[in-house]
Amino acid sequence: DAGVIQSPRHEVTEMGQEVTLRCKPISGHNSLFWYRQTMMRGLELLIYFNNNVPIDDSGMPEDRFSAKMPNASFSTLKIQPSEPRDSAVYFCASRRTATVAGELFFGEGSRLTVL
Amino acid sequence: DQQVKQNSPSLSVQEGRISILNCDYTNSMFDYFLWYKKYPAEGPTFLISISSIKDKNEDGRFTVFLNKSAKHLSLHIVPSQPGDSAVYFCAASAGRYSTLTFGKGTMLLVSP
């Protein structure tokens, strides 16, 4: 079974550009999470979806960030316009809703560098 | 305002010795605790968990201890192996099916 798939693995862009990160959750998983990892703040939850519906986006830093989940097998996290302080590793994770919190499967992450 | 705190950014241990990683939390609603392990350029992977009805959970070389009154948990690795070198994240949730709040992580280095 394939794990959570994220793309791109690395993205280098200039300040002001739009960035789109993509995620394919594990088939059959109906909850999807976007986390951001930085040295200062560790792993922060940005937003999560249940059955493709955003449940809690209180972790999204500001209006420049948006996330969508148009279907059960695809989600995007968009930053527009990007800023240097957005540089971080962004992780997508998925799980079956009915399983315990430990069964959260992470992708390999997308490392974003904004110059 | 960190609700889950890992105050040691790094820890160095010799192979064969015990590694003890610590975690403190402030939210009294947390009742399920987990440890994740992360290698460079990979995503975190689940290691071990404990619910608040227990004070110890063991899985092979890994044991997690929970002290609810002190709002403290620790992960013991015995014996430590070089392959255990990784970043370890402590996480907590209020309810088994709710979202996870992570600490900043502790980098463990096990030297031969």
What's the gist of this structure?
The complex is a heterodimer of chains A (115) and B (112). By secondary structure, chain A is an all-beta fold.
Number of strands of chain B: 11
Q: What's the overall average pLDDT of chain B, rounded?
A: 94
Q: Would you list the SSEs of chain A in sequence order as H and E? A: EEEEEEEEEEE
pLDDT below 50 for ≥5 consecutive residues: which ranges of chain B?
none
What overall form of chain B do the CA principal axes indicate? globular
Give start-end ranges of low-pLDDT stretches of chain A. none
Structural description of this entry:
The complex is a heterodimer of chains A (115) and B (112). The mean pLDDT of chain A is 92. Chain A has strands spanning 5-7, 10-13, 19-24, 31-38, 42-50, 53-56, 65-71, 74-79, 88-95, 105-106, 110-114. Chain A is 0% helix and 54% strand. In chain A, the strands form two sheets. In chain A, strands 2, 4, 5, 6, 9, 10 and 11 form a seven-stranded mixed beta sheet that branches. In chain A, strands 1-3-8-7 form a four-stranded antiparallel beta sheet, with no helix packed on it. In chain B, 0% of the residues lie in helices and 54% in strands. Chain B contains no helices and eleven strands. In chain B, strands 2, 4, 5, 9, 10 and 11 form a six-stranded mixed beta sheet that branches. In chain B, strands 1-3-8-7-6 form a five-stranded antiparallel beta sheet, with no helix packed on it. The mean pLDDT of chain B is 94. The chains are: A mainly beta (115), B mainly beta (112). The A-B interface holds A 4, 33, 35, 39, 41-45, 48, 56, 91, 93, 97-104, 106-109 and B 2, 6, 32, 34, 41-46, 49, 89, 91, 93, 95-105.
